[in-house]
Amino acid sequence: MAQADLDAILKEFLDFGTVKSDINEISNNVKLISSKIVEIEKQLNYLAEQMLEQNDKADSVAQYVTEQIETFSEQIKDKSEINSIKTEQPSTEQAQQKQTNEKMPVLLSNATGRYREILSLLINEGFFSYSKLADRLSISQSRVRAYIADLKRYYSVPITSIKDNEGVKVGISPEFVDRILGVR
Predict the structure, then answer these.
(1) pLDDT tens digits, residue range 43-61?
(2) What string of DSSP letters covers 6-39?
(3) What's the pLDDT score for residue 90?
C-alpha cells in the first residue's frame, strides 16, 4: 500500500472518531433533555393535583354556603309561619317583624344564577365596588346595581355600602354572614 492510501485511511478513521464523539455528545444532551422533561411532567402532575384539590375545596365551600342559605331561608319561612299563626294582638315588635316578612315574598334559597354568584362573592370575599363586581361577572354596572337592589328588596339580604378611597363598595353585614354560616 502506498503512503497516500494509508494517509486516507488514517484520515477517515480520525474523522469517524470525531463523528463518534459528536454522536456521544448529542446522545448525552438528549438524555439530559429527556430527564428535564420527566421532571417537568412530574411538576405539572403535582400542580394538576393541587388544582383539583382546590376545586374540590371550592365546591365544598359553595355547597356548604348553599346549604346554609337554604337553612336560613327555611328558618325565616318557619318564623313567618309562626307569626301568622298567632291570634293575639301583635306588639310593635311583632308588627315590624310582620312588615319585614311581607317584604320578603321570595326565599333566599330560591336565589339562582347571578344572585347566587353575587352572594357568593360578597360572602367569601367581602366588599366590592360596583365596577369590580361588574368585571368579575362580565356584566354592566347597571345590571350589578339591579341585582343588588333585588337582593335587598326581594331576598331581604342586608347589603351595606361603605365609602373608602376607592369609592363606594357594597357588601353583606358580617352578622348576616355569620347567621348564614351558622357562626354565633
Answers:
(1) 888 888 888 777 777 777 7
(2) HHHHHHHHHHHHHHHHHHHHHHHHHHHHHHHHHH
(3) 47
For residue 108, how many other CB atoms are within 10 A of its CB?
Answer: 24
Q: Low-confidence residues of the chain, pLDDT below 50? A: 85-90, 97-98, 100-106
How many domains does the chain divide into? 1
Closest CA to 107 of 146, 144, 52, 70: 70
* CA–CA separation, 69 and 63 (whole Å): 10
Strand, helix or coil at 154? coil
Range of the domain at 28: 3-181
pTM: 0.43
Q: What is the CATH number of the domain that holds 168?
A: 1.10.10.10
Going by the DSSP 8-state scheme, the letter that residue 89 receives in this structure is P
State residue 19's pLDDT score. Answer: 64
Residue 37 and residue 170: Cα distance in Å, rounded? 48
Amino acid at 130: Y
